[in-house]
Amino acid sequence: MAAILALFSNLGWPEIVIVLVVVLLLFGGRKLPELARGLGKGLRVFKKEVRGVKEELDEAINSEPDDDEDEPQAAKKKPACDRDT
């Protein structure tokens, strides 16, 4: 994996232009806008879902009660044998 990242880190402008020309030749001029549009929609949906998950996590973290403030109801009740009759 590191070797693949090392290959991409050494790409300069000439290499990027060659890659873009090859993509243009493979897909054609008519398909590129459709591909870009689909990629843009996919990225928007991904960002929206990430934002939704982040908001849900923030709500869950903020809505957790502190253990010191609220004792469970069972702990507040006295057992039946300790009650005064």
Describe the structure.
- This protein has 85 residues and is mostly helical.
- The protein has a domain at 28-57.
- The protein contains four helices and no strands.
- It has helices at 2-9, 13-27, 31-63, 73-76.
- The chain starts with a helix and ends in a 9-residue tail after the last helix.
What keyword list fits this structure?
85 residues; mainly alpha; 71% helix; elongated
In short:
With 85 residues, this protein is mostly helical. It contains 4 helices and no strands. It has helices at 2-9, 13-27, 31-63, 73-76.
* Series of secondary-structure elements, N-terminal to C-terminal: HHHH
Number of helical regions: 4
Total strands? 0
- Rg estimate, integer Å: 29 Å
Structural class: mainly alpha
Poorly predicted residue ranges: none
Write the SSE topology.
Blueprint: H1 2-9, H2 13-27, H3 31-63, H4 73-76
